[in-house]
Amino acid sequence: GIQVEQSPPDLILQEGANSTLRCNFSDSVNNLQWFHQNPWGQLINLFYIPSGTKQNGRLSATTVATERYSLLYISSSQTTDSGVYFCAGTTSGGSYIPTFGRGTSLIVHP
Amino acid sequence: EAQVTQNPRYLITVTGKKLTVTCSQNMNHEYMSWYRQDPGLGLRQIYYSMNVEVTDKGDVPEGYKVSRKEKRNFPLILESPSPNQTSLYFCASSLIDPGFTEAFFGQGTRLTVV
């Protein structure tokens, strides 16, 4: 199966700072998504972004499918942004078993 | 409201005592799946189902069973739980459509097997 690498594995920010999280795939992927897992364990959809750029408030994401990577931007971070960010995708061959990265753990200090 | 509902949220059980974790979605999604999440290993798929009476193994199916008798429900069954099945479990659903297969996740079930 495909390999998914997320970087950085850990990130500590001061409130108000900006950050960029990266997701690299070893092969072409479909159905790329970004999720946020809050400190209570709940998984929340952030973006469904197989290609292009999307924005939602302070968050935006860009996927460059031809180069097999995706970026998640967090601007003006808040303490509520803390948690773990995951990317996941399925291979172009039609598999319905998504592969998740191991996540980026983000802590935002007040 | 579109949602995926799992029950229970928390469960502590003893080794060998059969248990079922329920999952229900109200979005008429064809595709449903179960994941387990373990520290350092991320989310791994246990089983998935592409429609009623159609199920298949994911990456880590050993020790689990599933059934899909109705489109909205996809229970996860542990016939004889063992301590290595202590984990955080998620159910998810999505449409099967090459152009749109965004996944929606339940709230999670934290299982402890002692």
What does the secondary structure layout of this molecule look like, with pairings?
The complex is a heterodimer of chains A (110) and B (114).
Chain A (H helix, E strand, L loop, with lengths): L3 E4 L2 E5 L4 E7 L3 E9 L5 E6 L3 E5 L2 E6 L4 E6 L8 E9 L7 E2 L3 E6 L1
Parallel strand pairs in A: 2-11
Antiparallel strand pairs in A: 1-3, 3-8, 4-5, 4-9, 6-7, 7-8, 9-10, 9-11
Chain B lengths: L3 E4 L2 E4 L5 E7 L5 E8 L3 E10 L2 E4 L7 E2 L9 E3 L8 E8 L9 E2 L3 E5 L1
Parallel strand pairs in B: 2-11
Antiparallel strand pairs in B: 1-3, 3-8, 4-5, 4-9, 5-6, 7-8, 9-10, 9-11
Folded structure, characterized:
The complex is a heterodimer of chains A (110) and B (114). Helices cover 0% and strands 59% of the residues of chain A. Chain A contains no helices and 11 strands. Chain A is globular. The mean pLDDT of chain A is 91. Chain B is mainly beta and 114 residues long. Chain B is built from no helices and 11 strands. In chain B, strands 2, 4, 5, 6, 9, 10 and 11 form a 7-stranded mixed β-sheet that branches. Chain B has a 4-stranded antiparallel β-sheet with strand order 1-3-8-7, with no helix packed on it. In chain B, β5 and β6 form a beta hairpin. Chain B is globular and about 40 Å long. Chain B starts with a strand and ends with a strand. The mean pLDDT of chain B is 92. The chains are: A mainly beta (110), B mainly beta (114). The interface between A and B is medium-sized, with 21 and 25 residues.
Short description:
With 110 residues, chain A is mainly β. Chain A has strands at 4-7, 10-14, 19-25, 29-37, 43-48, 52-56, 59-64, 69-74, 83-91, 99-100, 104-109.
Please write the string of helix (H) and strand (E) elements of chain B: EEEEEEEEEEE
CA distance, first residue to last residue of chain B: 36 Å
Strand tally of chain A = 11
Sequence stretches where pLDDT stays below 50 over 5 or more residues of chain A: none
Mean pLDDT of chain B: 92
Largest interface: A-B, 21 and 25 residues
Q: Secondary-structure element order of chain A, as H and E?
A: EEEEEEEEEEE
- What gross morphology of chain A would you assign? globular
Terminus-to-terminus distance of chain A:
40 Å
Specify the number of helices of chain A.
Answer: 0
What would you call the structural class of chain B? Answer: mainly beta
**Strand residue content of chain B:** over 45%
As an assembly, this protein is heterodimer
Helix content of chain A: under 10%
Structural class of chain A: mainly beta
Major β-sheet profile of chain B = 7 strands, mixed
Into which percent range does the helicity of residues of chain B fall? under 10%
Portion in strands of chain A: over 45%
Overall shape of chain B: it is globular
